[in-house]
Amino acid sequence: MNAFQLRGGTIHCEEAPLPQIAAAVGTPVYVYSEGAMRSQARALLRALSPLDGPLVAYAVKANPNGAVLRTLAAEGLGADVVSGGEYRRARWAGIAPDKIVFSGVGKTAEEMVLALEGGLYQFNLESLPEAELLSEIAVSMGRIAPVAIRLNPDVEAGTHAKISTGAAHNKFGIPIADAPAACARIASLPGLRLNGLAVHIGSQLASLAPLEAAFGKLGAMIGRLRGEGHDIRTADLGGGLGISYDPAQPAPPTIADYCAMVVRVTRGWDARLIFEPGRLIVGDAGVLLTEVIRVKPGLGQPFVVLDAAMNDLVRPSLYDAWHGIDAVRPTGKRMIADVVGPVCETGDTFAVEREMDAVEAGDLVVIRTAGAYAATMGSTYNSRPHAAEVLVDGSDWALIRARREAEGFLEDERLPHWMTTAD
Ligand code: LLP
Q1: Farthest CA pair distance, the chain
Q2: Quick check: is 13 catalytic?
Q3: Distance from residue 59's CA to the centre of ligand 1 (Å)
Q4: Are 111 and 124 in contact (CB under 8 A)?
Q5: Which of 16, 74, 408, 422 sees the fewest Cβ atoms within 10 Å?
Q6: Looking at ligand 1, which residue's alpha carbon is closest to its atom 24?
Q7: Within 6 Å (CB) of ligand 1, which residues are found?
Q8: Where in the sequence is the domain holding 226, given as residue range(s)?
Q9: Distance between Cα 170 and ligand 1 center (Å)
Q10: Domain-located, residue 167
Q11: Could you give the 3-state DSSP secondary structure of residue 406?
């Protein structure tokens, strides 16, 4: 479902014209289609239906907005959380504890207590010191913590280095060769119950081959550990399936391809499968709606200066990510331009030498595929306000996060006692 289409010469989100939202809320603003998220969640659940009761735990980090979480909770998704903040959001959104997986390489004692008190399906452990601390805490609370071990399968994900997580030198997981000894130790800890194994090798994967390689290693390890007497019941296959950002690039594997591979590779495992998709569910359901401040002549092509910047959407600066950029009311004329934000860094660049709709000052533009890892990675760098967020349902829409105006920033700050406000 492409929720952002031209209707009568103007891009709409579902049936809501984007200029109407910009006029009411201002720009930059993230606009999300509820229908697009719902349809991705449903497509995934449908494609996984040959499996016996899988748990689809949406990776909250991709887009943690409360209204987004409520939408996905209503579709039956659980949550993969990596902080106390994400755990609280998931519970607030009505996600049942038995649908929450707690991942992350640096869980703190406070986070362990929070999740043990509130309940969860399992912690995905990343090291033995973490296992020991969790056991101690669980014992002190009179609880047993359900856990899985995240394996580092030593598989190159073939994605951007900053979002690859399954190679031996990455910080994530327990080296696969150490897994049998780690399981033996974990089984001996009084506060833990070993549920199963987990892998997550990276994000925005463009091929199924590395996923299949990692799942194969996980499957072999399940057999080995069962042979050593461990009761392995769950296998968490993580997230990572890529989505299409640039239509000129080969399309990533579809949900159907991915699920067919999973069904084939996991046949006979006799374990409950867990999935942690993030980008796949929300990535294509959002755009960043922004206004052209001015078009500035350049040495070669002009600079299109937007009112959105790297503080609103950092993916191009951080990962050289390509995002589609289109005029909300295209005239049919085209131009070649560098598309930039107002922040004082050359890295504040959304696109270089991009062939795009011709635009001028005051025109609205969308930066596409901005539903995942976009608003949530925003900052207030250059003392810029946090962008607002809007959710659309048909022709109806609502503000789901108010713009955090720069006037409020100083309210959070304090002068040290040796300065006086009178200075
Ligand atoms: N599970 C774990 C343990 C993860 O670390 C992640 C993502 C996911 C699931 C969800 O992965 P997904 O299905 O969304 O690929 N900020 C980067 C992406 C970082 C991904 C971090 N971990 C970006 O903008 O591309």
Answers
A1: 73
A2: no
A3: 7
A4: no
A5: 422
A6: 373
A7: 59, 62, 80, 103, 163, 200, 203-204, 238-240, 276-280, 315, 319, 373
A8: 34-280
A9: 14
A10: yes
A11: helix
Last residue of a domain, one of 224, 246, 280: 280
| Residues 42, 12 share a domain | no
| CATH number of the domain within which 59 lies | 3.20.20.10
* pLDDT tens over the chain, length 423 residues: 799 999 999 999 999 999 999 999 999 999 999 999 999 999 999 999 999 999 999 999 999 999 999 999 999 999 999 999 999 999 999 999 999 999 999 999 999 999 999 999 999 999 999 999 999 999 999 999 999 999 999 898 888 888 888 888 888 899 999 999 999 999 999 999 999 999 999 999 999 999 999 999 999 999 999 999 999 999 999 999 999 999 999 999 999 999 999 999 999 999 999 999 999 999 999 999 999 999 999 999 999 999 999 999 999 999 999 999 999 999 999 999 999 999 999 999 999 999 999 999 999 999 999 999 999 999 999 999 999 999 999 999 999 999 988 888 888 899 999 997 655
Question: Does 259 share its domain with 370?
Answer: no
User: Model's pTM, two decimal places?
Assistant: 0.97
Q: Are residues 274 and 297 in the same domain?
A: no
Written as one string, the DSSP assignment of 134-164 is: HHHHHHHTT--EEEEEEEE------S-GGGB
Please identify, by atom number, the ligand 1 atom nearest to the C-alpha of residue 124.
Answer: 3
Q: What distance in angstroms lies between residue 192's CA and the mean position of ligand 1's atoms?
A: 27
User: Per DSSP, which regions of 48-164 are E strands?
Assistant: 55-59, 78-81, 100-102, 122-125, 145-152
Relative to beta strand 174-175, strand 4-7 is unpaired
Please indicate, yes or no, whether residues 85 and 99 belong to a single structural domain of this protein.
yes
